[in-house]
Amino acid sequence: MASIVERPKKDGDSTFQVKWREAGEWETERFGDEDSAEQFKKLVEAHGGKWPHGWVRGKGFVEPDTDPDDMPLIDWARRYATRLTGVDKRTKDDYLREVEQHIALIVHTKRSGEVQAATIGNLTADDVQDWVRLEEDGARDEEDPKKWARRPASPKSIANRHGLLWCIVEAAINAEPQLRTKNCCTGTSLPRTDDEVAEEMVFLEREEYQRVATEITDPAARDLADWLVGTGMRWGEASALQVQDLKLTSGTPTATVSRAWKRSPKGSDRSFFLGPPKTRKARRVVALSPMQAATARRLVKGQRPEAYVFRTAQGKAWMHANFFSRKWKPAVTAAVEKGLPRRPRIHDLRHTHVAWLIAANIPLPAIQNRLGHESIQTTVDRYGHLVRSLDGEMTAAVEAAMSVPEQRAGLSVVRGG
């Protein structure tokens, strides 16, 4: 424990000395008034009987000297995003947009309360936490408070942006020369993603899917919808399948996911282009059922290897906007008018596929591989709540465990008699 000792001076005034023992040695600091001494005493005790971090004897809290290689945070963030490898141009553009629109909002607040531009070197955990709160609150238009100048960000968006900032800071730790020794993003308190009202995943029963499929009058569009719900492929993967991706003549029929449609960067002449799948594990081989194999054989008969498996009447690959507005949305609307209790999106066919597999007791690791999830955690987080097939076994196990003490107690009574 620290203590305060008053030291009278010859002129009648006093100084106040804070004393405490650290590693067996006495440490002291002097103050001109008792209130300041009391505040410092509390700081010492809050730090476990040690000098408060950042405090310099006789000077107080002092900002560290600027590293000669330090640079504005926004410049370092741009440098990080543009130098990334292993990602396509659109991903880099997305990162740069996040940097310009959100990372650029971060400022550094000194201990004195003075606000200054954030650098990669002076950024602190408090600065990061203040930024998260800024993202969460949004900002009203100064001229019209009823309007948003910047809308509040969703918990998921905040988590994604915080993850990007974490990587940006981590790059400074790994830089040569090293610009930081600690990642100030570690330990940030983020909004809970399960507190937001988000668009829920829709899981269709088999009969419910058939009610939608029946309303798809275009056979080519129906084939694609059946494929999506039957394989769990993403839209961009299924619509990019080519004849050469199918193996249908021997062994287990399969479809190899080796490409997917991607949106082109802003300013490009084309809206979409063919690129690699979403992740490394998304490049996969999907086993086909006999019914799916029969559909594939019918669709690829007489087609060149580069031809798309699923084609419009003009022989071109389906585009999402076209399929959604002309085929899927009218079918769903018609089904809802006839009593369908939910309104599924195209991507919900992937969710529905998983629900059907889980209902058939297919293990989650196998589902992970089929979907092409990079991590089993993604599969568990999204679909783990659907695994109810073992509820009976689990409750029986709990019942058996809870009943053991009672049985033992009964035995002891008999023996005692």
TrEMBL record:
Q: Where is the signal peptide?
A: none
| InterPro entries, per the entry | DNA_brk_join_enz, Integrase-like_cat_sf, Integrase_catalytic, Integrase_recombinase_N, Tyrosine_recombinase_XerCD
Gene3D superfamilies, from UniProt?
1.10.150.130, Intergrase catalytic core
Q: Does the keyword Flavoprotein apply?
A: no
**Which Pfam families did the record assign?**
Phage_integrase (PF00589)
Q: Which UniProt keywords apply?
A: DNA recombination, DNA-binding
What is this protein called in UniProt? Site-specific integrase
PROSITE patterns hit by this protein: TYR_RECOMBINASE (PS51898)
Q: Which family does it belong to?
A: Belongs to the 'phage' integrase family.
Enumerate the spans annotated as Tyr recombinase domain.
199-400
